[in-house]
Every structure is written in C-alpha cells, then in structure tokens.
Amino acid sequence: MSAKPREAANSAAYGLGRNCTLFESLRQWAYKAIRQGWPEYERWHEAVLTRARAYNDFEAPLPESEVRATAKSVAKWTHQHLSPAGFAAVQSQRGRRKGEKHRDNLMPKVRVMVTQGASQREIAQAVGLSQKTISNWIKR
After folding, report:
1. Are residues 76 and 99 in the same domain?
2. Do the domain assignments include residue 13?
3. Domain that holds residue 53
4. pLDDT value at position 86?
5. Has residue 135 been placed in a domain?
6. Are residues 68 and 110 located together in one domain of the fold?
7. Terminal CA-to-CA distance of the chain, rounded, Å?
8. What is the structure's pLDDT at 116?
9. Which of 12, 44, 103, 128 is the most exposed place for a label (fewest CB within 10 A)?
10. Residues 43 and 21 grouped into a single domain
11. pLDDT of residue 13
12. 72 lies in a domain?
C-alpha cells in the first residue's frame, strides 16, 4: 500500500485540520492493514506509527508528539476491536445477507418450476445454481 493518504483527505475541501486528516487516513489504512497478519500490539503500534509519520507530509507538519498520540490511538483501538474472529463473523453475516437476497430473488421462479414438475437438476440449470442448493431451498 502506498504511504500517501487518500486524495480527498489531503484536499483543502476536507477542511477539518491536519489532526483529523491524519487520523482519517491512518484509520482507513489500519482497518485494512491489520488483517494482513494480526500482529502483536508492539509490532502493530510500530507499523501504525511508521505509517502516521509517512502521512504527516502536510505543508506545516504536525509535531511528533501529535503524530505519536494519533498513531497510538489508532493502533490501540484497531488492535482491541478488530480480530480474526470478529472479521470472520462480519464476513459471514455479509455473506448470509447476500445469499438471502439472492435466494429471495430466485425463489419465486424455483417455486413455479417445482409446481410445473421440473426436476431439481432442470431447475438448477435454469437458475444457474447447483442441484444441492436447489434441494436445500426446496426442503425449507
């Protein structure tokens, strides 16, 4: 990932100041980066601090103490609140919702084909799903 913060965060239109700009850029990077290995806190804090220093490329850079404080805040929160189990749970929930939406869209067609006497294999081919999926849907 590049060491450059997002363009929107650097623009004058962002308007909230250097601290907020640094924080927003850093947290967005951290939310993604922590998933690349779930490091121990000390290693994670050092990585976040290094990234914060790279993002502190303002016309008038923030003092080192503010960069360290922002990095500590982001590192501590992400390390405490983002975990492999939590991420897996979120992804699982998103997958279930997407599957439910997909099923809700296709189920009327499946029901019609079932009442017309189509086989599970024929239904599966018609809607582009596996026969096992159609079997599971019909059982519900």
Report:
1. no
2. yes
3. 7-82
4. 80
5. yes
6. no
7. 45
8. 94
9. 12
10. yes
11. 38
12. yes
pTM score above 0.70: no
The residue type found at 9 is A
Torsion of the alpha carbons at 82, 86, 88 and 91, rounded to the nearest 10: -90
Report the alpha-carbon distance of residue 140 to residue 128 in Å, rounded: 19
71 neighbors 94 (Cβ within 8 angstroms)? no
Kindly state the tokens that stand for 31. Answer: 């939310």
Tokens of 75: 């590192």
Cα distances from 67 to residues 74, 112, 130, in angstroms, run 11, 62, 53
The pLDDT profile of the chain, 140 residues, written as one tens digit per residue, is 555 555 544 554 355 799 999 999 999 999 999 989 889 999 999 999 999 999 999 999 999 999 999 999 999 999 988 888 887 787 888 888 887 888 888 989 999 999 999 999 999 999 998 999 899 888 87
CA–CA dist 120, 117 (Å, integer) = 9
- In a domain, residue 2? The reply is no
**Tally of domains in the chain:** 2
Sorted by sequence, the CB contacts under 8 Å of residue 137 that are 6+ apart come out as: 103, 107, 110
